[in-house]
Amino acid sequence: MLSTDGFVVTPRFFPGGDIGSLAVHGTVNDLAMMGAVPVALSLAYIVEEGLPLDELRRVTTSVAEAARACDVRVVTGDTKVVGKGAADGLFVTTTGIGVRLPGAHVAAANGRPGDAVLLSGPIGLHGITILSTREGLGFESSLASDSRPLHRLAAAMITAGACGVHTLRDPTRGGLASALNELAAASGVGVELDEPAVPIPAQVAAACDLLGLDPLHVANEGCLVAFVDPARAEAVLAAMRARPEGACATRIGTVVAGHPGRVTMRTLVGSHRVIDMLVGEQLAGHP
Amino acid sequence: MTTLKRVDVHVEGLVQGVGFRPFVYSLANRLGLAGRVHNDVNGVHIEVEGAHAGVEEFLTALERDAPALSAIERVTVVSGEPAGHRGFTIATGDPAGPRRALVSADTATCDDCLRELADPADRRHRYPFINCAGCGPRFTVVRGAPGDRPMTTMAAFGMCDDCAREYHDPAGRRHLAQATCCPACGPRLRLRDPRGTELCGDPIACAAALLRAGHVVAVKGLGGYHLAVTASDERAAAALRGRKHREEKPFAVMAADLAQARLLAEIDDTAAALLTGRARPIVLLPRRDSAPTGASSGAPLGAPTGAATGVPTGGLAVAPSVAPGYRSLGLMLPYTALHHLLLAELAEPIVLTGGNVSDEPIAYEDDDALIRLGGIADAFLTHDRAIHQRTDDSVIRPLPGAITMLRRARGHAPEPLALRRPVPRPVLACGAELKSTFCLAQGRRAFVSQHLGDLENHDTLRTFVEGIDHYCGLFGIHPEVVAHDLHPGYLSTRHALEITGVEHVGVQHHHAHIAACLADNGDPGPVIGVAFDGLGHGTDGTLWGGEFLRADLAGYERLGHLAQIPMPGGAAAVRQPWRMTAAYLRDDHPGLDVARRNAGRWADAVHLAATGLDSPLTSSAGLLFDAVSALLGIRDKITYEGQAAIELEQRADPAETGAYPAALTTTSGPLIVEAGDLVRAAADDLTAGTDPGVIAGRFHNGVAAAITRTCVALRQATGLTAVALSGAVFQNALLLDRTVQRLRAAGFRVLKHVRVPPNDGGLSLGQAAIAAAQDHT
Ligand SMILES: [Fe+3]
Ligand SMILES: [Mg+2]
Ligand SMILES: [Zn+2]
Ligand SMILES: [Zn+2]
Question: Can you give the residue ranges of the Acylphosphatase-like domain (chain B) (predicted)?
Answer without folding.
Answer: 6-92
